[in-house]
Design goal:
The structure is a homodimer.
Chain A lengths: L4 H11 L6 H12 L6 H11 L5 H13 L4 E3 L7 E3 L8 E4 L5 E2 L6 H12 L2 E12 L1 H5 L4
Parallel strand pairs in A: 3-5
Antiparallel strand pairs in A: 1-2, 3-4
Chain A binds a DNA duplex through helix 4.
DNA sequence: TTGCTTGATGATAAGCGTTATCCGTTTCTA
DNA sequence: TAGAAACGGATAACGCTTATCATCAAGCAA
C-alpha cells in the first residue's frame, strides 16, 4: 500500500531534519486532504479551527517549506492570492473558473510531447511549465446571471 | 497594406473617444515596436527618455487602458513584475527564460484543438488560456555558470 | 526525566508591484 | 478660442508576501 500524501509529506519533513510541530501537522493534513487548491487564507482558517493561536506567517512559512521539499506546488496568480496543490505537486494543467475561483485538474494528454517538440525547435532547456484554462464551470453556468 | 500595430492602437483609442496625448503616443509607440514583452518599468524608462516628466502612474494607466481596448495583453507573474504584449494581444504560448527573463513567442500548433477537447470533456465554457514554458534560453545555456 | 541547543512560532513591520486620490494641466469640441 | 471633461503627475494607500526578532518548544543527550 503506497503512503498517503500526508505520510509522504511528513516523512520528507523528518528526513530533511525539520521539526514536526502541531501547526505544521495541521497544515500538512489540510493540504493532503484538499483537492480544491486552497489559498493561504483557506489553510489559515482551517488550521486556526484546531489551533487558534496559529499565525498567518506560520502558514506562509510552512507552505514555503513544503514547496522547497517538493511536497506542494504553488499556483501563482498576479491578480489574486496564490493557490496550493499538495496532492499533485508537479506541473499539470488547470481549469480555473473565473466566477467562483474553483480550480480543477483536467485529464489532458500529450503535454510531454508538446514540451519536447518545443524544446527541440526553440533550443530552450525547458524545466517546468504552466498551463491554465480560464472559463465558467458547469455549476456557475447553471446559476448564471449574465 | 494592413495597418501597423501602432496605427491600429491609435485608431482604437480615437474611436472609443479617448484623448491622444504625447505620453500615450510614446507608450503606444514603444509597445507597438517591442517584441520583448516589456515590463512597466521598461516602458517607463523608454518613455521618459523622450518625455522626462512622465510619471509611472501614467504608464500604468495607459497600459490598463490598452488592455481594456484589447490592444495589449498582460502577462501576469506573481513573483515579478507583469509583462505586456502589444504585438499579439491575444492568448498564445510563451517561452520564458528564468535566467535572463527574456520572453519569446514560439510557434505551437494544436492549442485550439486541445482547448476544444478540454471544454467538451469538462463542461467548462473556456474563455481564455495561458500557456507558459519556463527554462533556460540558448544564450544563457552558452554563458552558463552552474 | 531533565536540561540544553537550535529551530519554530507569533506579532508585526517592511517590501513590492499596483491602484486610488487629488489637483493642476491639456485636449478637443463647439 | 473658450469651456467642459479627461488626463497627467506626485504620492498615499492597498493587498499579498517576506523579514525581523523575541519568546517558546521539539528533539537529543546524559
Amino acid at each position: 500500500m503506497p503512503p498517503t500524501r500526508f505520510q509522504s509529506m511528513l516523512a520528507n519533513l523528518r528526513t530533511q531534519g525539520h521539526r514536526v510541530t502541531p501547526q505544521r501537522l495541521a497544515v500538512l493534513r489540510y493540504l493532503a486532504e484538499s483537492a480544491e487548491h486552497p489559498s493561504v487564507e483557506d489553510i489559515y482558517r482551517a488550521v486556526k479551527a484546531d489551533f487558534p493561536t496559529t499565525s498567518l506567517a506560520t502558514v506562509y512559512k510552512t507552505v514555503a517549506l513544503l514547496k522547497e521539499l517538493g511536497e506542494a506546488m504553488e499556483l501563482g496568480f498576479s491578480d489574486s492570492g496564490n493557490r496550493y496543490d499538495g496532492l499533485r505537486p508537479y506541473p499539470h494543467p488547470h481549469l480555473v473558473c473565473t466566477r467562483c475561483r474553483k480550480i480543477m485538474d483536467p485529464d489532458l494528454e500529450g503535454i510531454a510531447d508538446l514540451t519536447a517538440e518545443l524544446a527541440r525547435e526553440s533550443g530552450f532547456r525547458i524545466l517546468t511549465q504552466r498551463m491554465d484554462f480560464f472559463g465558467i464551470c458547469p455549476d456557475c453556468q447553471k446559476n448564471a446571471s449574465p
